[in-house]
């Protein structure tokens, strides 16, 4: 038995773990008390991680699909050579737009994604599709307008807030904040602090809240507008803060004053007195913050919702201080800034062929991918490399995704398991699991202190599986993009670290790339092949220039966190600290006044006036309730105790709720003659599935819920639990970001006769 430090990979918190490993199995799993953020915290889901690591659907060797749909084992050399030849042929024949990279990375799986994205310049393509682009891009778009860049990402300091608004968020189950359940308990038990939950369901978090506004699904914008209007009507906004830090408030105020508060409260089906109570309470709080999640990001008016929730904390001055919302530094660049208003004259952002969609944060939404494959004619996407993602299960409209992926000339899947998408692939490449390779937890979104956790492998890879850095570097070599050896760089890497702290290597790398500019987009693989050979963790090599850049940009904060060095050596010393920090490394320690330097506007002010969003406010004023023949609203993707996206395929990990039951209010169940355990059919405009019923009084009447993370065909069985995306549609989405309305799916429920 060995005991090792690692991290959980199930949500964005990536809590530190201490694990006993016995014969390749994750036995006893504990919270790592030395972890700088989680400090020993652990939820129930992490204790079941061996079900991710060891199960019957693990891939162990490369596979090639035959004409009859079966798979045959091939060598890595054969698979990569074939893939390289076909990718080159597709690019040279049809151009770069014929290729898309789908997925890449994932929760706690961030290094692999950086290597995989190198295929985009190799294929002369910009089309990167990911799950993040069907969740958060409306939010990123708004960030760009308010703060000057789409990667200016606010976080919330719930731990130190006096008044917390959770909107469409259930951190008791979904976590997403530091040590969620402990923090919620602290707020609940402190009479000087207030917790408000805005959600159509009385969630586990709502059960602990002081106030629960159980709004009608899809009415978030109306409720938020009513609250904002009350704040400005009653002069509860922080005018001093606005004058000092913001621009464009007068235009926003004029629109908010037009809001019919009572009408909008009624539209949301929330008593006006409660709306007023929350608006006044939040505005008058000493330290208030807002936490949102997919509940408000996967429903009607996604992008407008993002704008309005940010206005709540901005116009009340709850920004840039302890217990409020704050921007944060970012070590790994998880998103980019592709704001069409910031593009240099004479240039434009790459639009897709069919939908003419521009990227947000450097990403394109999966909702449009089926059309870009099937309906774009000669400009269609013909080849896809799908990495650590399962679109046939996790993207909206599984039927449309399946039809599109079947039509590809080439589909390559890089994954640890035989997924629904992998069954359609022409080639399947087995990746090492997150505990079998060097990885990093990149969702470190903290302020004023931020950290980074580099994780070494703690288990030997299964079979012939390889880590993504090796897979993609070999593929680039087979494509003729990179030579197999860089002798000079490798020699420098081995000889000079202790002498110059890697400065000699970085100088040599800079010279090499300046002389061979075509190699610059592939610096990650070049460093992996050269610097990596001299490091204990080869895949971490590209973190060296990132650490140097971070230390240069935030030198004072890096030194405040305890790192030492001159302007030349501080970055390399930070890199070494990351390599050696088995429980994670505190990167920087800011003061709250320094947050304003993180804004990307030229004058470091927040630009409240976003014309497109004020237009949307005017649109919703004339918007009629959505007409539908379906009597229920399905909220798809509910967070529960035993669901975790698609990362657990083996159903054995679930102690309860094996069926992923459809939850329905007792009054609705009575009308339909349904009881807990009954079989029913859930039908939407797109399709229907059979479900097991659970009567649940926490659900609003007229609303039903289903969890995500079910529906996998484990060991090629029938889907286990509800394949919820057979009910969702790619066209039922938001105009700005194409975000699907998973939390607002009109549905009908029918009782099935017992057999």
Instruction: Find the CATH topology of the largest domain.
Output: Dimethylsulfoxide Reductase, domain 2
Strand content: 15-25%
Poorly predicted ranges (pLDDT <50, ≥5 residues)? none
The tally of helices reads 27
Lateral strand order in the biggest sheet: 5-4-17-16-15-6-7
Round the Cα radius of gyration to an integer and report it. 26 Å
The CATH architecture of the largest domain can be named as: 3-Layer(aba) Sandwich
Number of domains: 5
Outline the biggest β-sheet.
Answer: 7 strands, mixed
Fourth-level CATH superfamily of the largest domain: Dimethylsulfoxide Reductase, domain 2
Taking the alpha carbons of the first and last residues, their distance comes to 50 Å
* Mean pLDDT level: 94
Question: Class by helix and strand content?
Answer: alpha/beta
* The CATH class of the largest domain: Alpha Beta
Shape: globular
Helix content: 25-40%
Number of strands: 27
């Amino acid at each position: 038995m060995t005991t090792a430090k690692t991290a959980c990979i199930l949500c964005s918190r990536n809590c530190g773990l201490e694990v006993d490993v016995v014969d390749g199995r994750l036995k006893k799993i504990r919270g790592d008390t030395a972890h700088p953020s989680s400090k020993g915290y652990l939820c129930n889901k992490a204790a079941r991680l061996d079900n991710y690591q060891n199960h019957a659907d693990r891939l162990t060797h490369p596979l090639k699909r035959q004409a009859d749909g079966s798979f045959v084992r091939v060598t890595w050399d054969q698979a990569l050579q074939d893939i390289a030849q076909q990718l080159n042929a597709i690019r040279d024949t049809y151009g770069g737009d014929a290729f898309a990279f789908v997925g890449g990375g994932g929760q706690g799986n961030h290094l692999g994604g950086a290597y995989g994205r190198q295929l985009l310049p190799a294929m002369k393509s910009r089309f990167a599709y990911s799950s993040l682009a069907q969740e958060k891009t409306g939010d990123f778009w708004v960030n760009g307008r308010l703060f000057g860049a789409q990667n200016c990402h606010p976080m919330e300091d719930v731990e130190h807030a006096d008044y917390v608004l959770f909107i469409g968020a259930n951190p008791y189950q979904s976590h997403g904040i530091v040590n969620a359940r402990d923090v919620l308990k602290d707020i609940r038990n402190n009479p000087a602090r207030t917790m408000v939950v805005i959600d159509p369901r009385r969630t586990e978090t709502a059960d602990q809240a002081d106030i629960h506004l159980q709004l009608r699904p899809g009415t978030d914008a109306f409720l938020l507008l009513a609250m904002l209007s009350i704040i400005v009507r009653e002069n509860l906004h922080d005018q001093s803060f606005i004058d000092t830090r913001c621009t464009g408030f007068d235009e926003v105020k004029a629109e908010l004053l037009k809001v019919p508060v009572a009408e909008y409260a009624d539209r949301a089906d929330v008593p006006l007195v409660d709306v007023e109570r929350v608006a006044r309470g939040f505005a008058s709080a000493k330290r208030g913050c807002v936490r949102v999640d997919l509940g408000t990001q996967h429903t009607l008016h996604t992008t407008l919702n993002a704008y309005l929730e940010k206005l709540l904390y901005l116009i009340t001055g709850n920004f840039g201080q302890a217990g409020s919302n704050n921007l944060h530094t970012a070590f790994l660049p998880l998103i980019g800034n592709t704001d069409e208003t910031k593009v240099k004259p004479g240039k434009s952002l790459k639009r897709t062929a069919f939908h003419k969609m521009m990227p947000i944060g450097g990403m394109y939404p999966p909702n449009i991918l089926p059309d870009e494959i099937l309906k774009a004619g000669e400009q269609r996407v013909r080849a896809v490399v799908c990495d650590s993602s399962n679109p046939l299960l996790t993207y909206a409209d599984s039927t449309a995704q399946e039809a599109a992926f079947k039509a590809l000339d080439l589909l390559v899947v890089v994954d640890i398991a035989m997924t629904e998408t992998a069954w359609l692939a022409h080639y399947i490449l087995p990746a090492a699991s997150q505990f079998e390779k060097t990885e990093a937890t990149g969702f470190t979104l903290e302020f004023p202190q931020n950290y980074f956790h580099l994780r070494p492998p703690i288990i030997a890879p299964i079979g012939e599986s390889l880590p993504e850095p090796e897979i993609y570097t070999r593929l680039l070599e087979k494509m003729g993009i990179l030579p197999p050896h860089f002798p000079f760089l490798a020699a420098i890497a081995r000889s000079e670290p202790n002498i110059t702290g890697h400065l000699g290597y970085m100088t040599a790398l800079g010279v090499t790339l300046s002389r061979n500019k075509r190699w610059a987009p592939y610096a990650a693989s070049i460093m992996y092949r050269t610097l990596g050979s001299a490091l204990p963790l080869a895949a971490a090599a590209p973190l060296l220039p990132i650490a140097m850049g971070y230390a240069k940009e935030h030198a004072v904060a890096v030194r405040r966190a305890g790192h030492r060095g001159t302007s030349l050596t501080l970055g390399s010393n930070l890199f070494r600290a990351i390599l050696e920090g088995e429980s994670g490394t505190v990167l920087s320690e800011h003061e709250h006044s320094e947050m304003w330097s993180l804004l990307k506007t030229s004058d470091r002010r927040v630009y409240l006036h976003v014309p497109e969003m004020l237009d949307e406010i005017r649109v919703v004023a004339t918007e009629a309730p959505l007409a539908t023949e379906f009597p229920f609203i399905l909220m798809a993707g509910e967070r529960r105790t035993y669901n975790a996206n698609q990362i657990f395929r083996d159903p054995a990990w679930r102690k309860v709720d094996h069926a992923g039951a459809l939850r329905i209010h007792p009054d609705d169940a009575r009308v339909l003659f349904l009881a807990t355990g009954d079989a029913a059919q859930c039908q939407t405009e797109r399709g229907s599935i059979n479900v097991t019923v659970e009567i649940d009084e926490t659900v609003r009447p007229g609303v039903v819920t289903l969890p995500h993370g079910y529906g996998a065909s484990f060991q090629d069985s029938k889907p286990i639990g509800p394949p919820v995306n057979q009910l969702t549609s790619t066209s039922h989405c938001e105009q700005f970001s194409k975000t699907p309305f998973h939390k607002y799916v009109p549905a009908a429920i029918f009782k099935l006769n017992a057999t």
